[in-house]
Amino acid sequence: MHSPTAPRIKKFPGLRQDFAASLVVFLVALPLCVGVAVASGVPAELGLITGIVGGLVTGSMRGSSLQVSGPAAGLSVLVLEAVRSFGLPALGVIVFTAGLVQLAMGALRLGRWFRAISVSVVEGMLAGIGLVIIAGQLYAAAGQEAPASGTAKLAGLPSAVARAASGGEALASLAVGTGTVVLLVVWNRAPRAVRAVPGALAAVVLATLATLLLSLPVSTVRVQGLLDAVRMPSLAEFGGLADVGLLGTALAFALIASAETLFSAAAVDRLHDGPRTGYDKELIAQGTGNTVCGLLGALPMTAVIVRSSANVRAGARTRASRVLHGVWLLLFAALLPAALGLIPLPALAGVLVHAGWKLIPLRTVVELWRGHRGEALILLSTAVSIVVVNMFEGVLIGLALSVAKAAWDASHIRLDVVDHGTGTVRARLSGNATFLRLPKILDSLEALPQDRPVELDLSGLHHLDHACRAALGNWAQRHGAPGTGPVRLTGAEAVPAGS
């Protein structure tokens, strides 16, 4: 006798795994959606709305089959700056415009070009964001208002800690935030059965219980209801696009969210053996999600590596897991909104401090410093620029440094000479021989002895442009004293131009 559910399971072979994975992703996403919204200076419900759209809309579209989208800590810094500069009503216009830009980039098949961005710039961007998040959320953990700029945040931390240590509500708030961070750090060392519960959820729940049982005087999340939080931009607010600053912010949202999404997709693809990401399709899915978020006045979305890796580790097979996680977020926001009002703000700050620390690639910096010091300097410069200036300009500085380094590498050339004092002088050129380095090349070659035979090996050249080819040919013809044999060239076809 066949079970009545057998045909259904056969039709959807991964349904059980996707259902279980969706619950895990929901439990991971819930505190992060709320925490990112609070850190961005907007109502907590807007983070849930973005998570819901990321599941129901973006999650149902093609692109990356197992990647999960929602509000990201990496964009909270940019959102906070935008809300302070243009106001909360303009957020929907900015996010909507960013979504349209992503749709256009996907339609023009520009997705693969994001893979050309230097990894050092992306890692530096994440590191800078992580530092700003940590600095800002330490104030929130102590129940204090954070300064606006990144440097002011860092400079004011000692006095903020001193004020919190003096006692009162600030000390209670700092204790809850510190306890949350400590729990998150030790959670990964707990037994596997315990770690089945996501650390962020466990930390927030335990902090909430401690706050209620001990009647701690700490601030909690403000609740206004899911529908009340939705604010569709008016036509008048779209007139703000005439502001170059607002338009530039929307472009920054689109580029940074797209870069973070596609780099996350590359990382997620390494975690599973399923279908690979279609980068242009993923850009279209993200753009669709962000246009919807913009129309609802919610936070921007991007693919999030924490939720995505949790989805893969939980055994997800298809897109159904991320769609279902959006369903669970919607049900929670609709049926249990009052539960948000019990969550202490310092607990969410602790979750984000931990998330910000994980964005700082300390191991990568050490490895780059040992093997590729130039790339390490680009990473550090990008991170420092984001903290000192702002996120958008910091990324531009990182990109400019990356282009400058690429130009330097493209024109780098080396001359190795073996000269025993007698007999033939053997020289070898390696690298890229371009007109940019031609004066250095000729100066080095002219310094070779003229009274002995010279053999010049060009096989180590990756590139030899026309100007250098002609110059080398002319040098080979005229170099050498009378009675000395001509210069012998090998490699690079050994055919000098202009001879």
UniProtKB/TrEMBL annotation:
<dbReference type="InterPro" id="IPR011547">
    <property type="entry name" value="SLC26A/SulP_dom"/>
</dbReference>
<feature type="transmembrane region" description="Helical">
    <location>
        <begin position="238"/>
        <end position="257"/>
    </location>
</feature>
<dbReference type="GO" id="GO:0016020">
    <property type="term" value="C:membrane"/>
</dbReference>
<feature type="transmembrane region" description="Helical">
    <location>
        <begin position="327"/>
        <end position="357"/>
    </location>
</feature>
<feature type="transmembrane region" description="Helical">
    <location>
        <begin position="120"/>
        <end position="140"/>
    </location>
</feature>
<dbReference type="InterPro" id="IPR001902">
    <property type="entry name" value="SLC26A/SulP_fam"/>
</dbReference>
<feature type="transmembrane region" description="Helical">
    <location>
        <begin position="160"/>
        <end position="187"/>
    </location>
</feature>
<feature type="transmembrane region" description="Helical">
    <location>
        <begin position="199"/>
        <end position="218"/>
    </location>
</feature>
<feature type="transmembrane region" description="Helical">
    <location>
        <begin position="377"/>
        <end position="404"/>
    </location>
</feature>
<dbReference type="GO" id="GO:0055085">
    <property type="term" value="P:transmembrane transport"/>
</dbReference>
<feature type="domain" description="SLC26A/SulP transporter">
    <location>
        <begin position="15"/>
        <end position="382"/>
    </location>
</feature>
<keyword id="KW-0472">Membrane</keyword>
<keyword id="KW-1133">Transmembrane helix</keyword>
<dbReference type="Pfam" id="PF00916">
    <property type="entry name" value="Sulfate_transp"/>
</dbReference>
<keyword id="KW-0812">Transmembrane</keyword>
<protein>
    <submittedName>
        <fullName>SulP family inorganic anion transporter</fullName>
    </submittedName>
</protein>
<feature type="transmembrane region" description="Helical">
    <location>
        <begin position="86"/>
        <end position="108"/>
    </location>
</feature>
<feature type="transmembrane region" description="Helical">
    <location>
        <begin position="20"/>
        <end position="39"/>
    </location>
</feature>
